[in-house]
Design a protein that fits this description.
104 residues; alpha+beta; 3-stranded antiparallel beta sheet; 64% helix; 13% strand
């Protein structure tokens, strides 16, 4: 069963722009300027999404002079992927065992 913390993380990752940011950061560590160029989002909008990702523990920051670089935390993504893999295994086992609740 998924906990509320897990549900919150999935909600955070469900936003299309945040998912695009996560996808870009899976390939390389980028600063806000790079992310603005890649996504086409306004800097203030992007910063708000990065804050949400940072507070959820999905990304971490790395200061570099006057720039802040963002790096994806793969362990968090692996944890979410593991939760979905668990759901798939449970669903497969349920289907194979033909488990269903009888109607009253």
């Amino acid at each position: 069963m998924m906990t509320s913390v897990d549900t919150e993380l999935i909600r955070v990752l469900a936003d299309p722009l945040r998912l695009q940011i996560v996808t870009l950061l899976s390939r390389e560590t980028l600063c806000t300027t790079h992310l603005v160029e890649e996504t086409g989002a306004k800097q203030t909008n992007l910063s708000n999404h990065l804050k949400v990702l940072r507070e959820a523990g999905v990304v971490e920051t790395e200061p570099c002079g006057r720039f802040t670089y963002y790096k994806l935390r793969p362990d968090i993504i692996e944890a979410v992927a593991g939760q979905f893999a668990d759901l798939a295994r449970t669903a497969r086992a349920t289907s194979e065992a033909n488990i269903k609740r009888s109607c009253p």
